[in-house]
């Protein structure tokens, strides 16, 4: 989508990173309903904590028959909240906490990780509006990301600190922000305990005063400011107490809010029912785009996590209080448009229609005509994965051999220009907008601290904004290589390997192999200062760019979704074999990792080839695909994974369901399963069931632990302390089971 403003249209399982003069008093936040809390101590009394292991979950089989195939689910009862489940979960959490705290070197690791993290300032989501730069930052000594603004003189001001509105022992998270076009106001979302249940607020960027406006059910956020006194936003429906979990993200509507008015009286602008020209299914939801200088209002409609967008347009002049616009549908899903950029009446569309590595076409926003659209960026060897319209040109981000490249396409047909970047690495975030020239972006690599850079098209130069100081973590002894590994069908899969320069290539090194592979998401090089603690202990980190991702365009994505999902798992196994064959490691020293949708990847890997791994991390992982449709975000994920309501969908989901393929008496590796009790993306019962099943089935004698975070969700909005503690637990667990040293070398 338009890189300048739309960052909220995220897949429900997309991999997300954990967080990252006295101010006037901050107004209280209107919070959504209470989120999960730690069960009372007396609730755990009914579950004994065996000395030899975690509490044993009762087996109560439920058999489902899908198109003639019977599938037994021994722990279906864990899906339903109950006092019994709370007690079992608390027993698991307590046992795991005791076990992890006793691991050799865990305290030393936590201290080192905290030192590395505190010595690295994290800056994200930088934007420039009205001459002011807005950004989120976690500085040394801070535990949560806060909203800052910096004026042209370089003077910085704290605009909002979520710690000031914490609710008792529950932390609050700043989920997102959107400045007004003149930079005078900022809308932002705040939620409790990593739940992502955002309440929308507005702060005055000059005085720091919080305005009285508060809008709940704002999880998907503000999408565009109309002017200095109103904005467009998406709002979830108000659900009755007995609504099923699957209803949460259905019937999403977009509204016009005028500051100072009651949000319950806001004008419906786009949504199911009540807006002329609009026909939506329950699971379709809109993002409204209103860029400066354009006379056209655009609605980009999402069908769950489907990458392609349907587009509707309406004249901007019809946007007024009390009267919904009349919309015209101009782009269908079959047109395979995944991104847009608007400059005046020029509409640029990023599409993979007859172009697996994507192309960019140009038409008029006021009269969209795809049949006669001009191809301004043809398909090439590199993958076009983002576009943005600045005042001077269209900026195009491409992925070339795993590295980011930035190209500038002047309006009016000028020759494309390559923007010279500091080296090989990744543009992890980029901001451009139609009223100002150039681009602002964050650039990094596996071993290079990130920097926020600006490109000046007049001088053709890059400049460091100094928004983010270099990390104090010294990576001079660490290097990285990009190679390719052979998958089961002969496909060569990109593999990034980061390791100490002094690594002995004798197969003895503890190795952490990670894979994701969903939604066409590209796993860019990422600098993580806390991983230096791993490299200091002789560890290797490897990222397998499995199919299902977008590293080679849409064909790579489709090569690992629904019926082809086994390729995703095969690719990770192929990368594991490469690391073994090249003597980076051996099965006794190799661990696999998957987070979120990556739970499918690592879950499949250890159930199909448990002999290949000594340990595994399944972090907030999707491991019970057959039951995915019953949870909050389940229906939205059908376009990516399939539905049990069709025979094709069932076969695909059954194939990728790791939980359904756990076999009794199998020597599984040591496994650490993690979950956050307020997770809206992967319901906590999914990791819980996987942990219970592995605990009952494994014959290896190696532990299967369930780590439960009660004051967190999917990792989005977690505090720095929570992030550091989880990394310390994970690395200590791996070192204990991979034969590594708990002390730095």
Describe the protein's architecture and organization.
This protein has 745 residues and is an alpha+beta fold. It has a domain at 67-115 and 477-738: Alpha/Beta hydrolase fold, catalytic domain (Rossmann fold). The protein is built from 10 helices and 37 strands. The strands form 9 sheets. It has an 8-stranded mixed beta sheet, with helices on both faces. Strands 3-4-5-6 form a 4-stranded antiparallel beta sheet, with no helix packed on it. A hairpin with a 6-residue loop joins strand 24 (403-410) and strand 25. Helix 2 packs across helix 10.
What characteristics describe this protein?
alpha+beta, Rossmann fold, eight-stranded mixed β-sheet, four-stranded antiparallel β-sheet, disordered N terminus
Q: Could you say what the CATH architecture of the domain at 67-115 and 477-738 is?
A: 3-Layer(aba) Sandwich
Subunit arrangement of the protein: single chain
CATH topology of the domain at 67-115 and 477-738: Rossmann fold
Q: What is the 3D shape?
A: globular
Summary?
The protein is of the alpha+beta class. 15% of the residues lie in helices and 30% in strands. α2 crosses α10 (720-738).
Summarize the SSE layout with pairings.
Layout: E1 62-66, E2 69-73, H1 83-101, H2 106-118, E3 122-129, E4 132-138, E5 146-150, E6 156-160, E7 172-179, E8 185-192, E9 199-204, E10 222-227, E11 230-235, E12 253-258, E13 267-270, E14 284-289, E15 296-303, E16 309-315, E17 328-331, E18 337-343, E19 346-351, E20 359-364, E21 374-377, E22 383-389, E23 393-400, E24 403-410, E25 417-419, E26 426-431, E27 439-444, E28 451-456, E29 461-464, E30 478-486, E31 492-500, E32 511-515, H3 532-535, E33 540-544, H4 554-558, H5 566-581, E34 590-595, H6 598-608, E35 615-619, H7 638-641, H8 647-656, E36 670-676, H9 685-697, E37 704-709, H10 720-738
Parallel strand pairs: 32-33, 32-34, 34-35, 35-36, 36-37
Antiparallel strand pairs: 1-2, 3-4, 4-5, 5-6, 7-8, 8-9, 10-11, 11-12, 12-13, 14-15, 15-16, 16-17, 18-19, 19-20, 20-21, 22-23, 23-24, 24-25, 26-27, 27-28, 28-29, 30-31, 31-33
């Amino acid at each position: 989508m338009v890189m300048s403003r739309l960052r909220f249209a995220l897949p429900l399982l997309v991999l997300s990173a954990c967080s990252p003069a006295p101010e006037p008093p901050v107004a209280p936040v209107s919070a959504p309903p209470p989120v999960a809390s730690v069960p009372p101590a007396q609730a755990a009394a009914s579950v004994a904590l065996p000395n030899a292991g975690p509490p044993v979950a009762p087996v109560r089989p439920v058999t489902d028959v899908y198109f003639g195939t019977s599938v037994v689910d021994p722990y279906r009862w864990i899906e339903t909240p109950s006092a019994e489940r709370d007690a079992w979960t608390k027993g698991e959490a307590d046992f795991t906490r005791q076990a992890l705290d006793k691991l050799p070197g865990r305290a030393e690791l936590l201290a080192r990780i905290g030192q590395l993290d505190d010595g690295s300032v994290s800056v994200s989501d930088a934007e420039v509006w009205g001459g002011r730069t807005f950004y989120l930052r976690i500085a040394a000594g801070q535990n949560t990301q806060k909203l800052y603004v910096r004026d042209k003189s370089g003077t910085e001001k704290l605009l909002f600190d979520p710690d000031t509105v914490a609710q008792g022992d529950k932390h609050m998270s700043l989920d997102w922000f959107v400045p007004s076009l003149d930079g005078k106001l900022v809308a932002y979302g705040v939620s409790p305990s990593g739940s992502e249940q955002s309440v929308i607020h507005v702060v005055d960027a000059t005085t720091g005063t919080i305005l009285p406006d508060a809008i709940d059910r704002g999880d998907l956020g503000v999408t565009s400011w109309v002017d200095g006194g109103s904005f467009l936003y998406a709002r979830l429906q108000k659900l009755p107490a007995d609504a099923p979990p699957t209803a949460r993200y259905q019937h999403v509507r977009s509204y016009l809010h005028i500051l100072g008015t009651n949000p319950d009286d806001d004008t419906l602008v786009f949504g199911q029912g009540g807006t002329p020209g609009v026909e939506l299914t329950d699971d379709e939801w809109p993002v409204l785009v209103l860029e400066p200088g354009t006379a056209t209002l655009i609605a980009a409609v999402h069908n769950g996590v489907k990458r392609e967008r349907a587009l509707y347009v309406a004249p901007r002049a019809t946007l007024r209080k009390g009267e919904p616009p009349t919309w015209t549908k101009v782009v269908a899903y079959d047109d395979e448009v995944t991104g847009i950029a608007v400059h005046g009446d020029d509409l640029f569309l990023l599409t993979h229609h007859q172009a697996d590595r994507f192309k960019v076409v140009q038409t008029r926003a006021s009269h969209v005509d795809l049949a006669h659209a001009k191809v301004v960026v043809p398909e090439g060897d590199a993958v076009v994965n983002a576009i943005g319209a600045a005042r001077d040109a269209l900026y195009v981000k491409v992925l070339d051999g795993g590295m980011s490249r930035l190209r500038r396409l002047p309006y009016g047909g000028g020759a494309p220009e390559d923007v010279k970047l500091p080296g090989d690495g990744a543009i992890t975030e980029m901001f451009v907008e139609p009223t100002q020239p150039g681009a602002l972006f964050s650039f990094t690599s596996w071993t290079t601290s990130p920097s926020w850079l600006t490109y000046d098209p007049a001088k053709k130069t890059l400049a460091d904004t100094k928004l983010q100081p270099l990390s104090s973590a010294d990576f001079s002894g660490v290097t990285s290589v990009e190679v390719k590994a052979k998958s089961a069908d002969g496909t060569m899969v990109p593999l990034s390997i980061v390791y100490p320069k002094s690594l002995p290539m004798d197969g003895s090194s503890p190795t952490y192999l990670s894979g994701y592979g969903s939604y066409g998401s590209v796993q860019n090089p990422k600098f993580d200062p806390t991983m230096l603690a791993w490299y200091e202990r002789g560890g290797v980190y490897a990222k397998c760019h499995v199919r299902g991702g977008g590293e080679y365009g849409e064909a790579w994505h489709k090569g690992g979704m629904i019926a082809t999902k086994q390729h995703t798992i095969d690719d990770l196994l192929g990368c594991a074999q490469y690391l073994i064959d090249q003597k980076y490691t051996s099965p006794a020293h190799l661990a696999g990792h998957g987070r979120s949708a990556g739970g499918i990847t690592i879950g499949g890997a250890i159930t199909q080839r448990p002999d290949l791994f000594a340990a595994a991390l399944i972090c907030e992982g999707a491991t019970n695909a057959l039951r995915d449709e019953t949870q909050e975000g389940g229906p939205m994920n059908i376009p990516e994974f399939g539905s049990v309501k069709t025979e094709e969908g069932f076969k695909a989901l059954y194939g990728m369901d790791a939980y359904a393929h756990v076999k009794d008496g199998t020597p599984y590796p040591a496994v650490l399963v993690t979950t956050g009790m307020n997770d809206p993306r992967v319901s906590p019962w999914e990791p819980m069931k996987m942990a219970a099943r592995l605990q009952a089935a494994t014959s290896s004698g190696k532990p299967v632990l369930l780590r439960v975070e009660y004051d967190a969700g999917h990792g989005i909005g977690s505090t720095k302390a929570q992030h550091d503690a989880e990394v310390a637990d994970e690395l200590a667990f791996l070192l204990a089971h991979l034969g590594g040293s708990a002390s730095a070398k």
